[in-house]
Amino acid sequence: MASTFPYHPEEAEAEKASNSYLMSLVAIMVGFPLPIINLLATLLFYIANRKSGYFVRWHCTQALLSQFSLFIVNSTGFWWTVSVLVMEDEHVSNPYLAYIITVFVFNVLELAMTISAAIKTRKGMHVSWYFYGPLTQIMCKP
Length: 142
Fold this sequence. Notes:
Distance between the termini: 21 Å
Number of domains: 1
Order of helices and strands: EHHHHEH
Shape: elongated
Strand content: under 5%
Low-confidence stretches: none
Number of helices: 5
Largest sheet: 2 strands, antiparallel
Mean pLDDT: 86
């Protein structure tokens, strides 16, 4: 969901804000099976830009929050899958399959939202996601 921001960001700010979303996409290519890689890449980018302008900080924070929740969902699915593969008394159950399908849908939606946010913020547009936007607004002050 694109909206207005108190000011129009400069080209460098729009690029950095866009890069905050791209960090997670690049990390997917590098460490796909390990859920922590995306979170670490986004966290490092956030730390490097936490003293930047408000537009950049805001989008770095939103990207970090989305990656944190994605990390929790993916880690649960990863370790549940490991337990199904390794433990003899654990088997593929309906709750397991439902969770894995949910994880897949959540990841596809987050990927689409991330690509869209990266494109829109690169154009200088403010993108506020439905759940993460209000939370980011509380955490990130001008």
